[in-house]
Amino acid sequence: MRTRSILLSLGLASLSAVVLSAPALAASGAAYFKGKTITYVVATGAGGGYDFYGRLISEYMEQALPGSTIIVKNVPGAGHIIGASQIYNSKANGLTIGTFNTGLIFQQVIGRKGIKFDLAKMSWIGKASSDPRVLMASVTSKVKTLADLRRETATTMSTSGVGSSGYNDTMMLTKVLNWNIKLVPGYRGMQSEMAMRRGEIDAAVGSLSSADLFVKNGYGRIIFQVGGTPPEGVPLLRDLVKGEEARSIAALIGSQGELARLTAGPPGIPADRLEALRAAYKSALNDPDFRAKAKKVGRPVDPLFGEDVAKKIKAALQQSPKTVALVRKILSVKAPSIKVGPVAIEVQKKGRYIVFAGAGGKKVKSKVSGSRTKIKIAGKKANRKKLKTGMKCKIDYKPGGRNEPKTLDCE
User: pLDDT at position 400, please?
Assistant: First the structure.
């Protein structure tokens, strides 16, 4: 009997030791991230506003999560859809978070094909800024007022990929304000500003924070702002337009400016880890050094955190049927293809990829389809395996994403 009591006591002691050690084996909250690597996905290329905020946020969140490492991963393409999809479909362990643009709200509202995520279900961590949209024009262009966009001679405007905030806003404003423009999609990050300096384009719709430094350096001028409180001398679009449709679109675009530079994770991150990420994000955005660095380069900081952001996202997704129908009609227009050439091509992977000088001389890497791309060499039908580096081709391609050519006519 005594032996059984001793064994029973030893067993209970062992069980107690296991129970007491359980929290150490399954760390919760901030402790979970110690010794782990968090990937912060930026759904655009290096450079530009999203990349700046992503890298600065990662730096200060890492400080607020002792023992963690946060790496930034740029995942550009398809108007931020590729990057957002990667975040949404990652494991819900708190180790993948990231940023993408509010243009995806429009795309989800209209049910765009290719949207395989639900923004309302994501684990919302915060937003870094309120960043109204503006129309910025090069100081060397003839665009000085809203009326200049209705001239007989088309204004050349750039935008990022189809589905991005810049693309959506440009398409909607063009439709309701009757602009006469030549749209050149495919510009990411700060490429639009550089293209203006080179004289390739006249203007672009973008964020105030991205335009501000460019204007201060004397390279551009702001024609109007959509929403928010504009700088002195800059008119608000709502004061320049008439008509229900135009005012409705201006109000919708303006409301999105409140949700700039978002950070989110996939659905289902455990509550304790999500709270730790939100706390680290809040600590980062409130850090005086963080704000000083952002201010130095003209990047506004106007944060909102956690559930407050989640509520605004859900509200933005709930639009009236009339507004949804209008937005769907406008955004259903396909982006125009771009024709260049003859230009020399560099051939990679037996013709599956080509590299060439696209619109304005910008280097373009293009994925050639074996079935959809129509290829001619010396006037005769050919397949992509026959393409050779140094050939000169007339190319009609779809900008953004894969930059897939519709036709290649080579000599």
Answer: 66
Query: Of 3.30.10.20, 3.40.50.80, 3.60.10.10, 2.40.50.320, which CATH number belongs to 338-410?
Result: 2.40.50.320
Which numeric CATH code is attached to 133-256?
Answer: 3.40.190.10
Which residues contact residue 406 at a Cβ distance below 8 angstroms, ignoring those fewer than 6 apart?
337, 372, 373, 374, 396, 397, 398
What are 92's two structure tokens?
Answer: 């819900």
Rounded to whole angstroms, the Cα distance separating 370 from 291 reads 50
Segments of the chain with pLDDT less than 50 = 1-8, 10-25
Neighbour-count burial of 187, counting CB atoms closer than 10 A to its CB (0-12 exposed, 13-18 middle, 19+ buried): buried
- Rg of the chain over Cα atoms, rounded to whole angstroms, equals 25
Per the CB < 8 A criterion, the answer to whether 37 and 71 are in contact is: yes
- Identify the residue whose tokens are 């406008």: 330
Cα(147)–Cα(23) distance, rounded to whole angstroms? 66
- The DSSP symbol for 95 reads S
Peptide bond into 76 cis (omega under 30): no
pLDDT at 13: 47
Whether the bond between 342 and the residue before it is cis, its omega within 30 degrees of 0, is yes
SS3 content of the chain, % helix, strand, coil (to 5): 45, 25, 35
**136 phi and psi angles, rounded to 5 deg:** -110, 135
pLDDT at 15: 43
